[in-house]
Amino acid sequence: MTVRRLVQRLGLAVLLVACAAGCSGLKPYPNDLASKNLTIRTAASASSVLSSVRVELDVHSVDASCSMRYLGTLQLDQQSLAVGIAPERGSVLTFHFLSANFLGSSRGRISRQLFITPRPGQRYEIDVTYRDDLYDVVLRERLRDGAAREVLAVDPRACR
């Protein structure tokens, strides 16, 4: 296969993935709270030019009876993203790691969930990493003195 042919296929694959992402029908998370109390940072390994990983975040609210309501999805396509999550209300954050090869075919989907009830006035940070088929989500609370403490991930099923 010639280099030109490979570049054409790669360009077609990128176009197909972009169209699929734009036409997926997912409801965008409004992210319209004035206070952005959560910063999400993503980091990936550049170990393979022929494969890529996209990360999507589904946000669900959780009421007092533990019922979840889907609020929307954010594409985590930036290294850092400020997000507003309602304080004093439970939220389930589901991170979907979607991998594809250079031809655009799907290789898999891995998800990580966490349950968070942000405290008013507190700031939170989530580091999302994917390296060599290892996927991790770490939640930290930024304390008033500037220090950060890791918050243990709570399984959303613990509410029930």
Can you tell me about this structure?
The protein has one helix and nine strands, in the order H-E-E-E-E-E-E-E-E-E. The longest helix is centred in the N-terminal third of the chain and has 20 residues, at 3-22. It is 12% helix and 48% strand. The protein is globular. The model is unreliable at 2-23 (pLDDT under 50). It is mainly β and 160 residues long. The strands form two sheets. Strands 4-1-7-8-9 form a five-stranded mixed sheet, with no helix packed on it. The chain has one domain (26-159): Immunoglobulin-like.
Question: How are the elements arranged and paired?
Answer:
Blueprint: H1 3-22, E1 38-44, E2 51-62, E3 68-75, E4 80-83, E5 90-101, E6 106-116, E7 123-131, E8 134-142, E9 148-151
Parallel strand pairs: 1-7
Antiparallel strand pairs: 1-4, 2-3, 2-5, 5-6, 7-8, 8-9
Number of helices: 1
Shape: globular
Order of helices and strands: HEEEEEEEEE
Name of the CATH class: Mainly Beta
Q: Tell me about the biggest sheet?
A: 5 strands, mixed
What fold name stands as the CATH topology? Answer: Immunoglobulin-like
Number of strands: 9
Spatial arrangement of strands, main beta sheet: 4-1-7-8-9
Alpha-carbon distance between the termini?
55 Å
Helix share, percent = 10-25%
CATH architecture: Sandwich
Number of domains: 1
How large is the share of residues in beta strands? over 45%
User: Whole-number average pLDDT?
Assistant: 79
Low-confidence segments:
2-23
Class based on secondary structure composition and strand pairing: mainly beta
**What name goes with the CATH superfamily?**
Transthyretin/hydroxyisourate hydrolase domain
> How large is the radius of gyration?
18 Å
